[in-house]
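User: Second chain of the day. Same drill as before.
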Amino acid sequence: MTTKEVLMWMKKIHWERMLDAHHDSYDLHQPDLDALDCAIALIKFLDESNPKDFVKIEELLKATQLEH
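Assistant: Same format as last time:
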């Protein structure tokens, strides 16, 4: 699978899960969606990087918008 295909599937899963959560009034907090958002952002970041580049943890956290 290419990166674009992986991102396409992850976005599809995200959309379906978001629709499910929207219809479930008890599902106010969605940690799985937060994790999926982080994974999508991380894959996008790494896809744009050169494989020979060194990546700092701080850059990964910033790309995924995780608080540190």
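The mean pLDDT is 79.

User: Great, on to the next one.
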